[in-house]
Design brief:
Layout: H1 7-19, H2 22-28, H3 33-47, E1 52-55, E2 58-61, H4 63-86, E3 95-101, H5 103-120, E4 124-130, H6 133-141, E5 147-151, E6 160-173, H7 187-190, E7 194-198, H8 203-214, E8 220-225, H9 228-236, E9 242-245, H10 246-251, E10 257-260, E11 267-274, H11 282-292, H12 298-304
Parallel strand pairs: 3-4, 3-5, 7-8
Antiparallel strand pairs: 1-2, 5-11, 6-9, 6-10, 6-11
Helix pairs in contact: 1-2, 1-4, 2-3
Length: about 300
């Protein structure tokens, strides 16, 4: 029996498994829904067994589907290694890197670093996605992405890690706000006040909501905005307070006042996470080397912990 699965089939199937949705998987794979559905059905027919369990709230892999996903990851990883080695010989052959990162990395540190890397490497494309640090570590460990950037507070398990940046979270308020009477603050000190937050899908505010839930509380949001600059302008008008990366607070031109948070989880170090750097394609190792160029010395990271 010839299965006849091509790389498009395998990429689509992995996207469907990861998102739990044929529609979302099709969007990520840049396929029309009808085409994606037909491909999935064709795979099941050629294999002679269902690959997905279809339910009202999405899909998940059958035993056969999970086995196929594991093999598909290996095949696609090998394909990327091949591309990396052949790019120097084959004109126009592009390398592709999937990079997962938390909110601070995506908004504050990666834009400049990725811009300079992509400008110097026209033959490499990067797929960047924002996720929570715990999801990033799991995704890299499972081979869903080649590279992740996550906070060290999550724990990296058996992954290899390299320093990337320091990322301290600070409280920002309007001038003359009552909280400014304290030099440092805890999350509990902030609970009586209303918040200005990022969009509900952001990794940072999912992180904050999780810590509030651990002490049996919920943050009260007046509005959620798209970026830190908009948050700072709203805070400046005393609409609410917010918790943002220190780098964003220092960059923002609004008249805001930052205060550090005392909790250990607010003093974060961002780490580059991979499964095994020696097994990555050449172009992926080039990206990691580029990202590490701006990393603080290990002694500085240890001193900030």
């Amino acid at each position: 029996m010839s299965l006849g699965f091509d790389l498009v089939d395998l990429r689509l199937f992995l996207q469907v498994i990861e998102t739990g949705s044929i529609t979302a998987g099709a969007q990520r794979a840049h396929l029309a829904l009808a085409s994606a559905s037909a491909r999935i059905r064709g795979m099941e027919e050629r294999l002679g067994t269902p690959l997905l369990v279809r339910a009202a709230r999405g899909v998940h892999g059958t035993a056969a589907g999970c086995a196929l996903a594991a093999h598909a990851r290996l095949i696609l990883e090998q394909e990327q290694r091949m591309r990396g080695e052949l790019r120097q010989y084959a004109q126009g052959l592009k390398g592709h890197i999937r990079l997962l990162a938390n909110t601070a990395a995506v908004t504050e540190f990666l834009p400049e670093a990725l811009a300079s890397f992509l400008a110097a490497h026209a033959d490499i494309d990067i797929e960047l996605e924002q996720r929570q640090s715990c999801d990033i570590v799991q995704a890299v460990a499972e081979g869903v992405a080649e590279v992740g950037i996550a906070a060290d507070s999550t724990g990296s398990g058996a992954l290899q890690t390299f320093p990337f940046r320091q990322d301290r979270l600070v409280v920002v308020t309007a001038p003359e706000h009552p909280l400014l009477q304290q030099e440092t603050l805890s999350l509990g000190d902030l609970l009586p006040y209303e918040f200005i937050g990022l969009d509900s899908g952001s990794a940072l505010h999912a992180h904050l909501d999780g810590h509030a839930a651990r002490i049996g509380k919920r943050l009260r949001y007046r509005v959620r905005l798209h970026d830190f600059d908009d948050i700072c302008r709203m805070v400046e008008q005393n609409v609410g307070i917010s918790v943002i990366p220190e780098a964003a607070a220092l960059r923002c031109r609004a008249r805001i006042r930052p205060r550090p948070l005392r909790e250990g989880w607010a003093q974060r170090r961002l780490l580059i996470c991979v499964r095994a750097i020696d097994e990555l394609p050449v172009h992926t190792r080039q990206l990691i080397a580029h990202l590490r160029e701006g990393a603080p010395p290990l002694s500085d990271l240890a001193a900030s912990a």
